[in-house]
Amino acid sequence: MATMESLIGLVNRIQRACTVLGDYGGEGMSLWEALPSVAVVGGQSSGKSSVLESVVGRDFLPRGSGIVTRRPLVLQLHKIDGGSDYAEFLHAPRKKFTDFASVRKEIADETDRITGKSKQISNVPIHLSIYSPNVVNLTLIDLPGLTKVAVEGQPESIVEDIENMVRSYVEKPNSIILAISPANQDIATSDAIKLAREVDPSGERTFGVLTKLDLMDKGTNALDVLEGRSYRLQHPWVGIVNRSQADINKNVDMIAARRKEREYFETSPEYGHLSSKMGAEYLAKLLSKHLETVIRQRIPSIIALINKTIDELNAELDRIGRPIAVDSGAQLYTILELCRAFDRVFKEHLDGGRPGGDRIYGVFDHQLPAALKKLPFDRHLSMKNVQKVVSEADGYQPHLIAPEQGYRRLIDGSISYFKGPAEATVDAVHFVLKELVRKSIALTEELKRFPTLQSDIAAAANEALERFRDESRRTVQRLVDMESSYLTVEFFRKLHLEPEKNTNTNPNQPGPNADRYNDNHFRRIGSNVSAYIGMVCDTLRNSIPKAVVYCQVREAKRCLLNNFYAQVGRREKERLGAMLDEDPQLMERRTTIAKRLELYKSARDEIDSVAWK
């Protein structure tokens, strides 16, 4: 089995590393909170600070009246082999304190940095580590003293604020409660015991400490409490005799105070039979031994938490991306893989795996037909305009049989109107594709860490879409021009035969050319052209979407980034590295996660190696 010193010392080191990395509190249970520590609880003037100083063997805590401890003090004791005592603060990591009067001043100054010179409190802890051959490995949390009334300069809520802060520490299942009560007050009124009873009704996490035994009224003693008759706990009560104010004024050192405390219990007629289980030295050893037992019991759950957190951190690193290699081959490979990831998302949008591609069909099914319906054929093929166009086409010689030139001009003029809807369809699909590029870049998780590459891909994709749009425009214009360049002759032959068949049934009626220049004649021309344009409209309604899909959508799926791939392949290492520039916040986040991951893996390995030796 591992020694008590090595196991608790390891926990201390892990807790300190957690604190340095900010892995302290927050949502869920952090590793810091999973590791047991001792929360020191007591009312104001209960002797709480003196107990801590006795355990440490150093005079280092601020003193005064009222609320002196206004921020939690996380105190980690580290046993070292020989050498002089020294202290370090987390907020001043490069400074080693060997003068403990300076430690006291730094605690007061650091408290004022957050709370000001007022009597306000703050839940932001101060982290202090003390290294000494005269301590046991232990983590203690000194909390503000519980109070019943607010004094001048304090808000009315101070009583509740302090209790809530203290409660937030002692209600955690891994917290060992050191409940300090003065012996010269009724134990039934002890603030510390009252709170401990609420959060730990079974008493399995609570150690009772009775201070100021030497200040009790003559003829009275605290044996009923110390022997568990007044208030029983699962752990034994420990009596403490603090330094007197005269000793403090005379700067009596803690080592001498400990010796004086031992003599008091050994020579006391009331407490002599308990002397081996009284005093600050015994309390420190008792807490350390219990802490080691609790740690050993908690090892399976601590390891489970560590493994769970390691999995979560690895998943987070996978999500935001692992560090990029520095050689150009690896960088080029990474860029191409990221481009392919974007391309997959983009194709999923088009093929229906993700929303957005359906908007292209909406252009063909709604926008194009609606635009075709709005074309001004009624005006263009009105009788008046037909007469005007036909007459202009005839010139000085009116047509003899059918006004072919007039027909052609009317048809050409009508077909030219189709260019507007055709180009609008191209532009509408182009807008949808650009929007899908933007969406796909935003939804490609692997790209989120590389804003420069995102911009490069967006620029390359949009440039390609512009080329596809230009080709699509030329193609749909050709489709329209094709309809003008060669008319469907059979359509007009059928029209010519129908009136002849109808008009020849009555030999007394004039021939089909008799109404050549009246209104019916021009109305019939307009109707014939309108029917032909209707046929052309049906043809283009089907062929324009095919051309747009072939020139734009198909090409976007097939070769959206082909030019970009060729350009990237020719770039030098420096330019490749610039493309993989990351968001500084993301880089900082990855570094933090990597450090936490290293901490948790190291903690798991060290706990495994130490705990089961």
Explained architecture:
The protein is an alpha/beta fold and 613 residues long. 59% of the residues lie in helices and 8% in strands. The protein has 22 helices and nine strands. The chain has helices at 4-20, 31-34, 48-56, 100-115, 158-170, 191-199, 223-226, 245-249, 254-267, 280-320, 328-351, 358-373, 377-380, 383-394, 404-416, 419-443, 451-485, 489-503, 519-559, 562-569, 573-579, 584-611; strands spanning 37-42, 73-79, 86-89, 92-97, 126-132, 138-142, 175-182, 206-211, 238-239. The chain has a nine-stranded mixed sheet with strand order 4-3-5-2-6-1-7-8-9, with helices on both faces. Strand 7 (175-182), helix 6 and strand 8 form a beta-alpha-beta unit. Helix 16 runs antiparallel to helix 17 (451-485). The chain is rod-shaped. Residues 500-507 and 509-515 have low confidence and may be disordered.
Low-pLDDT segments: 500-507, 509-515
Q: How much β-strand is present in the residues?
A: 5-15%
Gross morphology is rod-shaped
Structural class, please?
Answer: alpha/beta
Spatial arrangement of strands, main beta sheet: 4-3-5-2-6-1-7-8-9
Average pLDDT over all residues: 84
Helix content: 55-70%
Biggest sheet, in brief? 9 strands, mixed
| Cα-atom radius of gyration | 45 Å
Number of helices: 22
Distance between the termini: 4 Å
Q: Got a strand count?
A: 9
